[in-house]
């Protein structure tokens, strides 16, 4: 899950978002169909390069932009788009468990570090005891954010911290800061009102920030980071669709696309080609662990 926080993105009704998709969602994906892919951040230049690379391979792609994270998975479930590419495995697992769906990963893209940003201090040391830090409120990114804050010695988690940690797990007596959870697209706009904020990569640059501005972040190269690999997701019945698999390959093999992903992430992304079998195993484990927490 990767990028820029807009102050107030106008969230159009889903029907309006999809109105311009020529031919609607592709059917089981012959190369003659328009394949619609839902993303958060369609203005990133590499999507234009991706569409061209797909066209060169005989596949017409329509990139459907969504304002925030809760929208692309329901759209995929309802068949309003064919694929989406915006989330990591932990987010996908939480959606599947919460909604009793079975969306499936069909290819890996990258792991993005999750960063802490501030317009008031230059380093974590500048954050004072009692200050407030904003974090995304969706469960998967909330837990990951708390782990970043703990690593930065801003909070202490009672159980040491897991991918399921919540605000209730913060040991407030031992923690340096208070934590406020907001919609992911709003943490950047909260910066004038808080000491610092965890901002998803999708929203960093749109908030006028650079990835290098992060005063703390997690490590995408950590071997334990597999659940945070971003993926292309499809409906379970379409996971073996040859056209969709080809689109994953194009994303992974196009140098122009890969260079574009790195450029948009400020060089922070770790590009990956994790085997689908490993993604499926990771998803199954995280879904099992998530269900146990519900």
TrEMBL record:
Membrane topology note: Lipid-anchor
Keyword tags: Lipoprotein, Membrane, Palmitate, Signal
Presence of the UniProt keyword Ribonucleoprotein in the record: no
UniProt cross-references to Gene3D superfamilies, sorted A to Z: Periplasmic binding protein-like II (3.40.190.10)
Compartments reported by the entry: Membrane
Signal peptide: 1-24
Keyword Signal attached: yes
Any Pfam family matching the protein: Lipoprotein_9
InterPro entries: Lipoprotein_NlpA
Gene Ontology CC: membrane
Family: Belongs to the NlpA lipoprotein family.
Name of the protein this chain belongs to: Methionine ABC transporter substrate-binding protein
Organism the protein comes from: Cryobacterium tagatosivorans
